[in-house]
Fold this protein.
Amino acid sequence: MLRLMLNSKSSLLAHQQKMDNISNNISNIDTTAYKKTDVNFEDLVYDTLKRKGYPVSRDGKTGYGLQNGTGIKIGIPIKNNRQGSLMKTDIKTDLAIDGGGYFEIIMNDGSKAYTRDGSFRVDLHGHLVDANGNYVNVVDKKGKTVDIRNFDYKLTNNNVFINEAGEVYARGENLDKKIGSIVIKDFIGNEALIPISGNLNIPKKGAQSINASGSKIYQGFLEHSNVDIEEEMVDMIVTQRAFQLNSSSLKTADEMWSLINNLKK
């Protein structure tokens, strides 16, 4: 009886955590380039029935081999990297990635973060930056980060031009002057990145990064969230039904426990 109550409790907790994950996905349905997270359930350790007081067979087939589950838990959330739809904005500094990979961002402390959110702008110094003023990593032919202040021409929100290969140009009346190329990195495994503030992610320790291949950058576009409200609502209904079932199971076990205690009296 106690095992039934503990199993119901663990299942209630797991389904509540899944509901929290669904709610987080729905709340980010309008967040630029947000990638939904999926969660699955995992079994807790199994408990053998080979012990005193358990009426099991001793034939070696059904007795000592029997095991009893001890409940479930929520698994590690897995980022769903499905491509979101592209929305045209006609803002020259808005960028969207069609394909795999993330924009490489240089943080204020020099560390690197990664995002699919291409809501960029050009700052007063001529650098392409995100909403928090962090530099978008633009490199030269040697792979060195470009400092626009070393150029004799300036990048602005109006003259910036970026082609599908990620090459950045300062567009003039008669000549386009190349600044460098935007770094697009991809990572092996759906669990390689850890989300931090905003839409930024940092790689886990030991995560392997590679140069994204086959991806294109579209200027004047932003990527929508890949959350499908219909999928989330269906998942929410199923989770609610499972939560109610386990709640009823816990209530039944409690009533049976109370009945047994009354019989003793």
The helical segments are 2-27, 229-264. The chain has a mean pLDDT of 86.
